[in-house]
Amino acid sequence: MIRRVAVLAACLFPLVGSAQTRDISGIWQPVRAIEGIQPSGAMNMPADGKPEHELPYTAAGLEALKKHRPSNGPTEVAAAEENDPAHICDPQGFPRENLFELRATQFIQTQFQVVMLYTYDRVYRVVWTDGRQLAKDPDPRWFGYSVGRWKDDSTFVVETNGTDERTWLDNAGRPHSEDLRVEEQFHRVDHDNMELTMIIDDPKFYSKPWVALDKLHFKLMPPATDLVEMMCSPSELAEYNKKHASRGAVKK
Q: Does pLDDT of 168 surpass 90?
């Protein structure tokens, strides 16, 4: 009788630190805030001028890069001259939603999908888990089309295509084409810790795939955590530009 009670208790109340199988639901936040903010571009390939962080651009990729004028990074320009689409409150889209201002994110799992609720801009993504394949010739969307599958009991793999090429990859102004495909791997290390790895594959603009995030560390937040608003407000943007647009770019 004692043994039966112990087995029942173990089923109803898992050991602290253990993780549910094939489950990433909950509110997850980067352990180090700067690794989620990524002000100089993708965390593992920032635009810092270091040779090891130079991306493998194709000729078409370099031409596209020249058209982007970010307000930070080694190619930064004055605020009045930058052309970041997110700074006029266009959706920053995907994968930039993971590569700039990645804050606490809530994951909700259903029988057919995983829904991701982002703090920044209060937007959401839907990852289909019902066995469907990626669209063959999709019309572009700001956040693309995503399908997911469990690689094993603790690793959820998401593939995304059909992203809108008007968006930037990151805050450094890296471009992408309509051929972009992104792979995300969410690995739940244990009950309270998860890692995100993200691979960029765009043969039109990059000669080979590259890793934008390598095991970005998240911690599980309490279920009653209240996610704050972080919205792009045109009126507040206009006020900011009024005060700072005349400021020159920092000289490198």
A: yes
